[in-house]
Every structure is written in C-alpha cells, then in structure tokens.
Amino acid sequence: MNLVGGGRDVRNRVRAAQSAAFRAAEAQIEDWGLEQNEQGWRAEAFLYCVEVKPPDCDYYIPLAPSWLVDEYLRTVVIWRHDEGIDRLRPDVVEISAAELREFKNTKGATLVDGRVIDPFDPNRSWSVESLRGPDGLRLWETDEVVPRKDDLFQERLYCIRWMDTEGNRLYRSPNSCDFEREAKALRLLNERIANWRMKGFIPSAPIPLDGDKTSEPVRTRGWTCWSHLFNPRQLLTHGLVASQSLSNLHQDRVLAAAAMLNLGRLADWNSRLSCWLSSPTQIAGGKNTFLNQALNPLYNYSARPLSMMASAQIDFDSERPIRAASAVEIGDARDVNRECDLWITDPPYADAVQYHELGDFFLAWYGKHIRGAFSDWLPDARGQLAVRGEGEDFKKSMVEIYSNLARHMPDDGMQLVMFTHQNPAVWADLGMILWAAGLRVTAAWTVATETPVGGIKKGNYVQGTVLLVMRKRVEEKHGFLDEVYPEVEDEVKRQIDSMRALDDGAEPNFGDTDYQLAAYAAALRVLTGYQTLDGQDVSHELFRAKPTGRGAVAEKSRFERVIDRGIQIACDYLIPRGLEAAWPSLSADERLYLRALDVESRGERRQGVFQELARGFGVRELMPLLQGGRANQSRVRTPSEFGRRDLGGGGAFASTPLRHLLFAVHATVADEGKPEVGRNYLKELLPDYWGDRTRLTAILDWLASLAHGDDDRWTADAEGARLLAGRLRTDHG
DNA sequence: CCTTTAGTCAGGGGTATCGT
DNA sequence: ACGATACCCCTGACTAAAGG
User: Fold this and answer.
1) What's the whole-number average pLDDT of chain A?
2) Which domain of life is it from (predicted)?
C-alpha cells in the first residue's frame, strides 16, 4: 500500500536512496578490488563447493551432483590429482559437442543419491550420513563464517565466470590471486563483523532447531545462525549495502521499509543456498534461495558480485497510486476488530508451506530495524501465532478466525477465500470450517491454470485456485437429511450440466478433478444454507471426538456423508461419452473401471484421483483394477494385463459381466485376432448372453476407441475389442 | 503376537522449458 | 536474465500385508 501504492514521489525517493546506497557500496568494493582481476576482467559469478575427506581417502573430494558448469558454453570442471597434495585441482575446460554428450552421460558427479563418489574410482563411495557420524556435525559458533579446519565439510572456490575487457564471457579456475581476494574478503569481514552485528547490518538471530524446514541446515551443515547461510563474500557485500541503506534514515518509514525489502532480495538471490543452474539454451546462472519453499543446503552453489545484484533491487509500478484509507497491521486474525464489507483471505492449509519458518530467513536481515520503523511489529510472536498443523487445533483456530471475521462484517457483506489444494477431501474440510463459522457458500470458482498448447493435460495439473464466495448465514434454516439429499442431487446435476455446456468436444476445459471440486462446491452450497441438520449443529460434528486406539475407524459425520453423496451423484452423472445406453445396467465396480479408463485416457496418472473415484462409486477394492506402478504412474489394467487374474474369483469386480468381457477381449488378442474363442467364452459364462449382447457391443466399441497414437499399451487390446464387437454384432446363434 | 517387508504417497531436489 | 511452471525421480514417513 505505502510503497507500491505510493505513486511517483515515493518511487523516485526510494530509487534515489537505493541507488545511492548501491553506488557507495560498489565504490568501496572497487576500492578493495574484490571483484576484478589483475587484467581488468570483471567477475560475474563465483562457484563454490563443499569438499570432504573420507577417513580412508588421502585427498579431499569436491562435491557436486554435476560438474557441468555451462551447457550452453560447453564448459565443465575436471578434477586433477597432483601427487602428494590432498586438495584436487579444478580444470575448467571448454569441450566439444560430442564430448559434452559423453560428459552428460557419465556426468562425473561426486555426489549421487546421498553418497560421495571418488572421482577417480566410481566404485569407491561413502554415504554422507555415515560420514556425518552418529553424533552429527559440529555446530558452528555464531561468529563463524567459514568451516573450521577440522570440520568434516570444507568449502572451496572452484570456478569464476569473468567478463573480459572486450565483453567476452569466460569461465576460469581460480588462481592464487583469486584466492588472495577471497582471503581479503574474509579479513575485511572479520574486521567489521562484530560492529555490523551490533548495528544489525548482518543477521545475528539463531536458526530455530526444531522447525520442519529450519532443522535441515543445522543437521546437514551445522549452521546455527542465519548468517551461516551466507559466505564471507556475500556477507561483506550485503553488510556494505545494509550499512549504506539503513544508516541515516531519519525515521523515514518508507525508506526503511524499502531498504529492508531490498536486503531481503539480496539475501534471496545471493546465499549459500543459491544453486547454480546450467541450461542448454542459455548461459548458466545462479538461482534464488527460495526457488523452492524449503531451506536445502547445497553441495555446490554460486555467489554473485555486487555488480550482478543490481537487477535484484526492488522496483515497482508508480503509475497507479492507491488513494484509500489503508492500514497494514500484523496480528492474530482472531483479534481483528475492524468492521469490513469484504474480507479476502488466503489461509494456509495444514503443513503445506511453512511460511512462519521460512520468513525468518528474511527477518534475520531486517533485524531490529523493523521495530525501529514499525513500532507495532510483533517480530517474535509469528511462530506461535501461525495457524498450522492438522486436526482439532487447526480446525478450531480456523473456525475462530472466520467466526471473528464474520462478526465484523455487515449482514450483506461478503467473504472471499482463496484456496489451492489437490486433494478435494481437504478442500471439503475447509468447507466445513467455513460452515461452522456461520458462513454460507454462494459460489465457488475454480480458476483453471494454463495447460500446454495442444497437449493432453498431464501430471499434477490441478493447480487451479478455488475461490469460495460466502455470505453470512442470516436466516436460521433447519433441515433434515432426507430432504437435503434430493436438493444436493439437483444442485450437483445443475452444476455439472453448466460445466458440460462449456466443455464441448475435442478440447476439454475441465479435468476430472475440476468436476469433483465443483461437485463438492455444489454440495456445500446447499449444505451451508442450513443451520442444523437433524437437529445437530455443524461445529458439534466438526469437533466430534474421534475414536482412538488400534483399528478404530472414524465414523463419518452426517455432513461428510452428504458431501460424499454429492460426489457420488457427480460420479454417476458423469458418464463417459458413448456409454450412455449401457450405463444404467452396470454395477458400481463396472462403472468405476470404465470411468477410471476414461479418466486415464485423458492423461491422468495419479493414484489419488483413482482413489477419489473409487470413493465416489463406493467401491472398496481399487487396487485390483490398477496396474502396479509408482505414485503418479498409476494406470488401469488393460484386458491383457488382467489376463486370467482373479477371473470369476472372490473380488466384486472379478465376477462381473464386464470382467468376463475383458477376458474375452484378451482371449481374442491371444488367439491372434480370432474372436471365436472370446465369443464362445461369453456365451458359456453369461447367463443372459443374448440379452446382454447389445450393451456388451457398445462397451467393446468404446474400448476399441481407446487406442491413442502415443500409447501402444492399448493398441492390441483395442483391436481385439473391435474384432470381438464385430463378431458379437453379427452373432445370430 | 511381533517382526520384517513391500507398498504408498506427499513433498522436495534437481532439471527442463517457456514466455517476457 | 528472470520468473514461472512442469516433470521426473528420490526420500522419508508411514502403513498394510506377509511371515515367523
């Protein structure tokens, strides 16, 4: 609001202050000569790696998952062993395209699957875990910035990218002058570190040892202070910028905020967690720490000189100043006491992203300045305030929050909740929470994310954010389950019809999960209109004591059952195109198989989606229908993959007409395309062969349409189905 | 009944690709 | 060069089934 919405004046003021601080820092670095070599080349990137000396190895092994420095410029590092010296020597070389292909195959990685590999003997390896030892690593003292000589993990500079005086980019291994500059940076930092810490220009805060994400740097590197996530060069550069931009602010909150945000940007883009990424199509480069939402220490990383940090500076659009009463406050959402017409919330869910932990990475750089500029800031309370975890506490806090927001909203006010989650069941949970908070769902929009042009939707594409629009539940409506069911049924059907109307022909707009989410939403729209069902309040159901103990299965609440019913309706209602006539006479197991196939044919591979389908059809045994495979590799068994498996056996699916039909298809394929065996089998086994014939043929036609060009799994079976269908069609006894 | 093994899955690490 | 996103594969935590 105050920065982005501040308009041109604020922008210019921030820009001026920022570039002044940068220029001053750059002048100092230039004076020290830290980023230029004796030939006048400018450094663009410094590459560092961890090295380790296993007990029975007489040299330090530099670690990296790949020694390919730059695929685009075809530059790699090859390690040399000089007799009698326990440090290897990096050779940074440019190789030919053919050599590059070879290099990419073998990679020469010294760290694979958590094991250290001897670069000169691939058969010799040590697991990192065993090297760390049973007691783990020595923990660093606060003021330490580099490993001690006797630490397991050492760190070294192995490559520098230069820009020569003619503007050419060159990778070189460091020489003695480069190492001297590294030593100088360390010396300069050590001279300043105590003072800088005192003034809050570099972090002093400890890393919480017990966090989900924060424990990893401690465990795998021994880092205990946020400053340990930065090497001497990085701390020196950032400290310089901090000292320039945070001094003499004269209580200017805007400049203070901008300076802190800027430091955050520097920290993100230049830390020991900034990985070095090579690409075949463009020059390699260092990435930001929060490339992912975690804190994973890397074995090799990159540092940027200050001259390469200019692009990291914050900038913002000044063309749209925001002129409205605004207040930015940090506090517990349960204590909000401001009246608002529209509340827009973006809640966390369970343990998805540990914002409260990751945020400390930046707060460590803001230090005490944040309290100077924002006196009402609660820097230490966030960890406790963060609503997290699962189960009762989480639900309870969420209900309290949304009840409070609903209280501070007029009767015609509105709430908008953004929510992204791939598991619809979790999403339903959120619906219950909002319901219990006295809100009524009036609409739900799933915002589809872009999908690859022309391709089938593949993989975890359900990233769409769900927007729930809600009103206060004003009238007291009391309902009974048996009257709510038909209402839910109508609403779900209406919802699906409206989506189908949009979703025509070859390019579907909605995936299977979109329909399921929509079904949940429709069910919720009906349900949340009621205050009580069968005389029971929703919060009572939400916080019902769950049975504990071995083998206890939580009984579903009546509310969950209604929601499940909505999904069931959706499942029954979504009939694969071409199977409409056969559908009514199929059993749940048969419908599940065909629907799963339908879903699979659109590229779905996630087991969770198939499980959700099974739940929708009320089928317990899903696994017999699936062909093994790993997570996200689930597929429905083809007739040939079924073979004779469980044929006519105990399982619910095993004795259905569809199962026999699948076997007949398999028999046709096995008999080199002669449908006679399959036809005879069906005639023998199905009590009502003549009655079933028409719908069996329809199913066979549908199966025959399943072969796609890129998936030959179905090709033979689809052909078998086509032949068998032809035989059945012309069967006259 | 306890122990071992195999299966399951969410989430993360690493990488590729694309748009701007 | 940066940012966004998708994907493959791995890991750790967990759990169900099998084995003793």
Assistant:
1) 77
2) Bacteria
Query: Are A590 and A698 spatial neighbours (Cβ–Cβ below 8 Å)?
Result: no
Show contacts of A255-259: CB within 8 Å, 24+ apart: A255/A13, A255/A14, A255/A17, A256/A369, A256/A372, A256/A373, A257/A2, A257/A3, A257/A373, A257/A374, A258/A3, A258/A14, A258/A17, A258/A18, A258/A314, A259/A17, A259/A18, A259/A21, A259/A369
* Cβ neighbours, 10 Å, residue A10: 19
A5 has a pLDDT exceeding 80: no
Cβ of A284 less than 7 A from strand B: no
What's the CA gap between A714 and A707, in Å, rounded?
Answer: 5
Let me know if A218 is exposed, middle or buried by CB neighbors in 10 A (0-12, 13-18, 19+).
buried
Q: Which of A222-231, A352-361, A647-656 has the highest mean pLDDT?
A: A222-231
Residue A102 has pLDDT above 80, yes or no: no
Mean pLDDT of A582-606: 78
- What's the pLDDT at A108? 63
- Using the predicted structure, report yes or no on whether residue A456 has a pLDDT greater than 50: no
Q: Where are the beta strands (DSSP E) in A288-362?
A: 300-303, 342-345
Segment A154-183 mean pLDDT? 87
Helices (H), A222-339: 232-246, 253-269
Residue A247, CB, less than 7 Å from strand B? no
**Can you list the alpha helix ranges (DSSP code H) found in A272-390?**
355-366, 369-373, 382-385
Provide the residue ranges of all domains of chain A, joining segments of one domain with +: 4-312, 333-546+553-570, 579-729
CA of A212 to C1' of C13 (A): 13
Distance of C1' in C19 from CA in A73, Å: 57
The closest nt to A169, taking CA to C1', is: C1
Give the residue nearest to nucleotide C8 (CA to C1'). Answer: A632
Cβ neighbours, 10 Å, residue A435 = 26
pTM for the structure as a whole: 0.70
Question: Which nt sits closest to A269, CA to C1'?
Answer: C2
What residues contact residue A624 under an 8 Å CB cut-off, 6+ apart? A645, A646, A651, A653, A654
Q: How far is CA A674 from CA A7, A59, A320, A336, in A?
A: 78, 68, 73, 74
What values do phi and psi take at A32, rounded to 5?
-75, -20
Within 7 A of a protein CB, which nucleotides of strand C? Answer: 1-3, 5-12
Residues of chain A (43-72) having a beta carbon less than 7 angstroms from strand B: 65-66, 71
Two tokens, residue A250: 């004269």
Cβ-based neighbours of A640, under 8 Å, separated by 6 or more: A666, A669, A670, A716, A717
DSSP string of A369-388, one letter each residue? HHHHH-TT--TTTHHHH---
Which positions ≥6 away from A683 have C-beta within 8 Å? A689
pLDDT at A149 over 50: yes
Dist. CA A64–CA A69, nearest whole Å: 11
List the single range of A15-19, A252-256, A264-268, A283-287 with lowest mean pLDDT: A283-287
User: A239-274: per-residue pLDDT in tens?
Assistant: 999 999 888 777 788 888 888 888 887 888 888 888
Q: Which positions on strand B lie below 7 Å from a protein C-beta? A: 8-19
When pLDDT is averaged across residues A46-62 and rounded to a whole number, the result is: 86
CB A260, CB A50: distance < 8 Å: no
Q: Quick one: tokens of A515?
A: 């329909």
